[in-house]
C-alpha cells in the first residue's frame, strides 16, 4: 500500500465559544477584536491524521501530514496549533483581511496544493462554522475527480489502498469504501481532539511553515456571490416580572388573557 | 453560524463543562448557580458535622434536621421577644400588604411553611432555622424602620443576601426574623471614566458583572455562586474568590458603604472617592462582619477595565516544591498579567475525572497540577510573555508537562478541572471541608499530615468494597493567595473521622499562625474555633465593637464571635 501523504486544510474562524455579532453596516459579522481559533471540524481533521500515524492504522504508514490555511497573517497561529497537535509542516497562503475566498476558489487552490504536495488523502472539516457552506470538500473531489466520503464518524484502512468510512445518516450508519487517493470530510463524532502539550507547542515553533500567495496557485480572490445583507435573528421578546399574584392577575387582564 | 449549536453534543470538553459541572460555574459567565440547582446537586460540608448521605428532594416540614436539634448545646436567648400578630401588623404598616414584601408564618404557620423554607435552609442543607417571618424591604428607610422597631422590641434579626454562605451564617438558628435584601437589587450609577459602580446591596453579583461587561469593565470579585449571591452578602463575608490575586480584597476595592445600625441609624459612608483620609475608616468594619453589627444597604466599588485577552496554562509538577518554584517564576515573569494561580493535587483531579469522565488535559499523571491564568489588554503582548515563561519553566525542569488552551473552549475546560472539584467531591458523598490560610512553604504539609493521620487511624483506603470510611484526603486552592482547601471525602458517616480530624487540623494551623477560615468566614460553623486564629485580646476588642454597634445583641445572634 502507498504511504499516506495527508493534506489537511484548516481555517481560522471566530471562536466557537464567542457569540458572533453582525457589524453595523450589515455586510457581515464583526471580526475586529473578536477571539479567533481553529474551526472545530478542522481540529478533528488534524487529530484524525495524527491518530492514523500514531495508531499505525494505515498499512503503508504516514509519510507526511501537511496543514494548509488561506487567510490573514494571524492564520499562522492555528497552523502552529495544528503542528503542536502533530502535523509535520504548514503552508500559509496569505489572503488580505476581509478578502475571504469562496468555497470554489478554496477548492481550486487546494487542487493545485494537492498536485504540488503529491497528496493522496485530503481530510477536511465538513464545514466551517463561519459560513456553514459545507461545499469545499465536495468541490475539491469534483475538481480532482477523486472519490469522496463526507461527514466521517470512523475511518479504517484495508488492503490494496482501500479506505472504509462510516458516516452517520438518519436512523443508522452508512459505510462507504473507496480507493486512495480520496477526500474525507470530518464530523463531530470522529474523535476527541487532544490538548497540545507544552513540549509539542515548543517544537511546533521550529517546524517548517511555508509562506505563499494566491498567485502561487494561480488564483484571485474574485467573488461570484454577492452578500446583500446580514441581519441578526429577531430578538426574543423579554419577559416582565410581576411582584405578586395580584400583579399577575392584573397583567393577565391587561393582556386580555383572562 | 447555524451549526454552532449542533456542535454541542460532541464538543466534548464543553459538553462536559456545561452538563456535569454547571453548578461550579465554569468561567466565564456561561453558567451560574441558582438556588434550586444548588439544592439539587452539590452540597458541601462544614468542618464539624458530616452531612446526611441521602437527601430527599423536598424538605420534610418537621424533622430532626433543624439546627436547634442537631446542636442541642445551642439555646434560644430568652431576652429575645416572641413574634406576635401585633408585630406583624406593624411590619405590614411599614412595608405594605403585598406578599412580595413580607412572608408571614405567624398568623398561619402551616400555610406559609413552603414559602418560608428557602429562607430557613442554607445552601449546604446543613443548617435549618425556624423563622416565621421574612421581611423584604425596598429602601434604606424601610430597613431603618424595621431595625429600629426590632431593636426597641428585642426581636432578633438575620440579614440574608443570596443565601449561598458556607458557614451557616445566613439562616436563623431559632425564630429570628429574616431580613431579605432581595428587593433592593438596583444598580444606581456607574461612572464610565473612573469605573465606580454604585448599587443596592441586594444586587446579584452576576447581574452587576454583566452590566459592567457591556461597558468594558469587570467586577473585581468572581466566585462559583455568582448567579445567586448578593453584593451585600459578598461584602458581609469579605468573599475572596478567583480574582483576588489580581484585583485584591474587597477591603481595597470597596470605596463606600451605606448601612443601617440596629437602632435605625443610617451609616452614610457611600463615598465614591479612592482617597479619603478623614477619620476612622468605619466602612471596613462592615466588610466581613457577617451581618452582626448592621445591614449593608448600598455599595460603592471600584471596578477595573475588563481584560481583552485571557490565556490559561495547565501544568503537571513533580512535587509541591516545584509548584512553589513555578509560582515564584510566574510572578516574576508574568507579573502584571498574572490573574490566577491555582493548585490541585492528583487526588483531587482523579476524583473529578471519576465523576465527570472528561478527557484529562495531560497524558500522564503528576502529583500536583497548577492552573495559571493571564489577563491583559493586548493578546500578542501576553502571548509573547507567556511563551517565554512556558519555555523557561520547561527548560529549567520546574514543570514536567503542561498544556496551553488553544481556544476558548479549552480555556473553559481547563478551568473546570479546578472549579469542578467542589462539586465532584459533593457527588461522591460527605465531605469535611477546611478553608484555611497557611504560610505558603508549609501549606501542603497540612494535607500530607492529615492524610497520614487518617491512614494511621485505619480509616483511609481507596478500596472498591468500601471497607474504609474515608475515600481520599485531598488539597487544592488559591495558591496565589496562600489559601488551601483541605477536603476529606468520605463514604459514609463514621464518628471516628471527626475525632481524628478535630481539633487536630485547627491545632496544626494555630501552630503555624494560620487562619482557620480564610475566605468563608465564621458564621455558626466556625464560631467556636476563632481562638485558634485570634488571641483572647483580639476577640475582646471585637466584642467591644459588637457591643458598641449592637448593644442589645439583636443582629445575627448565636454566631460569629
Ligand atoms: C458554589 C459556591 C462557591 C463559593 N465560592 C467562594 C469563593 O471562591 N470565595 C469565597 O470567599 N466564598 C465563596 N463562597 C461562599 C461565599 O461567602 C458566598 O457565596 C457569598 O459571598 C455570600 O453572599 P450571599 O449574598 O449569598 O450571602 P448570604 O449567604 O445570604 O449571607 C452571608 C452572610 O452575610 C450576611 N449578610 C448578607 N447580606 C447582608 C447585608 N446586606 N448586610 C449585612 N449582612 C449581610 C448574612 O447574615 C450572613 O452572615 C461560595 C459559595 C458557594 C455556594
Automatic annotation (TrEMBL), chain A:
Cross-referenced SUPFAM superfamilies: Adenine nucleotide alpha hydrolases-like
GO biological process, one term: amino acid catabolic process
Keywords assigned: Electron transport, Mitochondrion, Transport
Entry's cofactor comment: Binds 1 FAD per dimer. Binds 1 AMP per subunit.
Kinase among keywords: no
Domain Electron transfer flavoprotein alpha/beta-subunit N-terminal: 26-221
SMART domains: ETF
Superkingdom as given in the UniProt entry: Eukaryota
A GO CC term attached to the entry: mitochondrial matrix
PROSITE patterns in UniProt: ETF_BETA
GO molecular function, a single term: electron transfer activity
Names of the cofactor(s): FAD; AMP
Keyword Electron transport attached: yes
Compartment list: Mitochondrion matrix
Record note on quaternary structure: Heterodimer of an alpha and a beta subunit.
Family per similarity comment: Belongs to the ETF beta-subunit/FixA family.
PANTHER family named in the record: ELECTRON TRANSFER FLAVOPROTEIN BETA-SUBUNIT, ELECTRON TRANSFER FLAVOPROTEIN SUBUNIT BETA
Purpose of the protein: The electron transfer flavoprotein serves as a specific electron acceptor for several dehydrogenases, including five acyl-CoA dehydrogenases, glutaryl-CoA and sarcosine dehydrogenase. It transfers the electrons to the main mitochondrial respiratory chain via ETF-ubiquinone oxidoreductase (ETF dehydrogenase).
Protein name: Probable electron transfer flavoprotein subunit beta
Automatic annotation (TrEMBL), chain B:
Top class in the EC scheme: oxidoreductase
Xref: Pfam families: FAD-oxidase_C, FAD_binding_4
Subcellular location: Mitochondrion
EC number of the protein: 1.1.99.39
Region (Disordered): 38-66
GO molecular function: (R)-2-hydroxyglutarate dehydrogenase activity; D-lactate dehydrogenase (cytochrome) activity; FAD binding; metal ion binding
Catalytic activity field: (R)-lactate + 2 Fe(III)-[cytochrome c] = 2 Fe(II)-[cytochrome c] + pyruvate + 2 H(+); (R)-malate + A = oxaloacetate + AH2
Compositionally biased residues, Low complexity: 38-48
Highest taxon above the source species: Eukaryota
Domain spans labelled FAD-binding PCMH-type: 127-306
Cofactor: FAD
Recorded coiled-coil stretches: none
Keyword set includes Zinc: yes
Biological processes annotated in GO: malate metabolic process
GO terms under cellular component: mitochondrion
Keywords of this entry: FAD, Flavoprotein, Metal-binding, Mitochondrion, Oxidoreductase, Transit peptide, Zinc
Record keyword Zinc present: yes
Task of the protein: Catalyzes the oxidation of D-2-hydroxyglutarate (D-2-HG) to alpha-ketoglutarate. Also catalyzes the oxidation of other D-2-hydroxyacids, such as D-malate (D-MAL) and D-lactate (D-LAC). Exhibits high activities towards D-2-HG and D-MAL but a very weak activity towards D-LAC.
Family according to the record: Belongs to the FAD-binding oxidoreductase/transferase type 4 family.
Protein name: D-2-hydroxyglutarate dehydrogenase, mitochondrial
